[in-house]
Structure formats: C-alpha cells, structure tokens
Amino acid sequence: MSLLVVGSVALDSVETPFGIKEDVLGGSAAFFATAASFFTPVQMLAVVGEDFPQAHLDFLRSRSVDISGVSQEKGRTFRWKGRYGWQLNEAETLDTQLNVFQSFAPKLSELHRDAQYVMLGNIHPELQAQVVDQVKAPKLVAADTMNFWINGSRAELIKTLARVNLLFVNDTEARQLSGEHNILRAARAILAMGPERLVIKRGEYGALLVEKDQVFACPAMPLADVFDPTGAGDTFAGGFMAMLATAKQVDSDVLRRAMVMGSVMASFAVEKFSLERLKEISRADLHARFSEFKRLTHFDDLPMLDA
Questions:
Q1: Which of the four CATH numbers 3.40.1190.20, 3.30.70.20, 1.20.1740.10, 3.40.50.970 does domain 3-297 have?
Q2: For 192-220, what is the mean pLDDT?
Q3: Carbohydrate kinase PfkB domain location, by residue (predicted)?
C-alpha cells in the first residue's frame, strides 16, 4: 500500500553532552521516511532551499523514497538548532529559521492523491487539513502535532483532529491538548475530539496505544548508549506506519507489532546523531532487536493461587 509523508526536511545543528553536529540532515519527513523505507516505498512531500546538499537527496532516493514531491525553492533550507542536557528528555531550542519552509503549501500530484496511508508531519494544522482535502480515499490518516500548535492554533488543530484516524503526541502534549493531568483521562478526552486511536510517546518510558476499548503499553529498549534523541518520535512513527501500510488489514495484532517496531526504530535512531545509525543498520538488525523486545516483555501466566 502507498505511504505518503508530508512534513519538514531540515538541516539541524545539535549539541548533546556527547558532541556537536552542524547542518546534518533532519526534519520530521526525513526521519519518518528513512525509518519507513526499511519496509515499503515512501512518497515524500516537502520543501528545501538552494543550499540543500545533493548528497541528502541522493540518500533519500537510494532508500526508495519518492522525492518527486520535494520542491527546491529559491532561498535557504529550514534550519533548527538545539541543545540537550544530560537527561536528554527535551531539547532547548537555540535557533529556528523557517526560511523556505515558511511559505510551504502542500500540493499533491495525482500519484500523491492516491496514497492509502498518509502521515501528516508536525506542520501547521491548516496545512494538515489541506492535505486531507486533496487525498482521494485514504485507508488511514495519521497526524503529529506539538505544543506550539496546541497553544497557538488550537481551533485549527481541533478541526483537523476531527478528520484524522490516528494522532501521535508525547505525554506533555497529551496533557496540554486535553487539559487532563492523568494520562488515560487525557487520552480519552483526545479520542473524543475525533481520532480513533492515539499513540502517546513517552521517551525512555516507552509508548502507549489507546483505543476506545483497550490500551497497549510498549516499553522502550534499555540502551547503554544514547547520543541524540532528535527525530526519535518521527522515526517511531515511520516504523509504526510502515507496519500498517504493509499489513493486509489493521487489527489489534498488527497495531501492537507496529508499536514494537516503532520502538525498535527509535531505539536505533538515538544511538548516533541525525540519521547516522539508521544508515548503518539492516533488516536483520531490526529483526534481532524486535526479537529482543519480545524476550524483554515475555512472561508466563500466573498459576492459580490458593484461596
């Protein structure tokens, strides 16, 4: 099934306690597409500037990412600069330069309009709605958002949420969006806004999949080496959505495997800066870590206790 991602492609400058990287490949669409490309071809809709390195475009193309929807406009590429402390839980944004991304207006080709699975990256909710307007008959539309849109464009976001099937947020964003402190109450409140399913990303504590009648909790892989969490959430979404797009049908078992694969992809992404680790691994590595997750979470039923 065709998988389309609409979002940002950026040049990131990142500082963590383990080093500094300047102008490396980043952006929600780049992380998502790279992760998803391990399983299925991906169509990407984004914008870059004249200064965007050809090597990055060549890399994406080499991963079976259709970049025909990536327009190269006059001006500079979207740039983000951030710094992480030792806890690596949240970045301190030092500089944001939207550049050509400021006037990004997604226009889908006929090929893009036929996409069956659509990922709306972390862009303005009105732009997300414009994409939904243009796709013909998608099987599933997922969206990501952030505190900036929750606080500054809430009305537009609520309208968009009524039109998507699945939402990705972190736990802080879930509380902000819902006004509820308890994470399950927050999830129920968000589901009432329209999405059928909610994935709450909780960083080193894993992720929750919340549906109307059930909840699935997926842990994060315990890692000895975590260098850069930038893009981990988008990488998670890429693995998750690729699992859905390659399944014959989306049911409870598929969704749970998608959660684990999302966590697998994110666990690799954080082991090096930018997309460096994802460039190194193979499908065999993914399979091995997926099996590791299974061993990590497996346990037998509790025998009947005496009264």
A1: 3.40.1190.20
A2: 93
A3: 26-273
